[in-house]
Amino acid sequence: MPFAPSPAEVALVGAIFAVADPQKLGLVTGEQGVKVFAGAKLAPATLGDIWALADPENNGALTRKGVAIAVRLIGWAQNGESPSAELLERAPPIAARAPAPTAPLSNQLPPLLPADRNKFLLLFNKTNPAGGLLNGQSCPNYLPSCWLMKPIYRRASEKYVRSL
After folding, report:
1. Which residues 6+ apart lie within 8 Å of 46 measured at CB?
2. Which domains does the chain have, with CATH numbers?
3. Which contiguous run of DSSP H or E holds residue 118?
4. At the top level of its lineage, which domain of life is listed (predicted)?
């Protein structure tokens, strides 16, 4: 069975790429990978084994698939397993500590999954937006109850006082 990342792994890969690939090249370099994967709190030798499995052609950089493979193997290593290709075929474990994005988390938005997007569109349309904008006075009635929207509302309300 070919490797297929879980939705949680896809979301984490998106967060990693958001900070480790600022030029949007579709690659995480070895230098950025060291910074990101250090947050997993695994031995350097284990992280080296994981990188080797995620970058089998020894390109020195990981694609999205390579980062997803690394994320899966990090989860297994944190659960006491030695990294191996066979672990890629097993359902992912719950990671004890995820690889850490290199930018401060307070400056990042969580990944937006398709299911969340649909929920937010429904909520947005219920507010009767005028010209694609919400009335700034009504936003606090809707947005603070959505955990994902709180940082968006906070940032937007600092910049745009009257409407979002």
Report:
1. 77, 82, 83
2. 7-103 (1.10.238.10), 114-159 (no CATH)
3. helix 114-126
4. Eukaryota
Long-range contacts of 45-51 (CB under 8 A, 24+ apart): 46/77, 46/82, 46/83, 47/74, 49/82, 49/83, 50/74, 50/77, 50/83
Question: Which residues of the chain form beta strands (DSSP E)?
Answer: 28-29, 61-62
pTM given for the model: 0.58
Q: Tokens representing 24?
A: 């949007």
Q: What is the pLDDT of residues 28-78, one digit of tens each?
A: 998 888 888 888 889 999 999 999 999 999 888 999 999 999 999 999 999
Q: Which residue from 55, 56, 91 is spatially nearest to 76, judged by alpha carbons?
A: 91
d(CA 126, CA 128): 5
CA dist 46 and 40 (Å) reads: 11
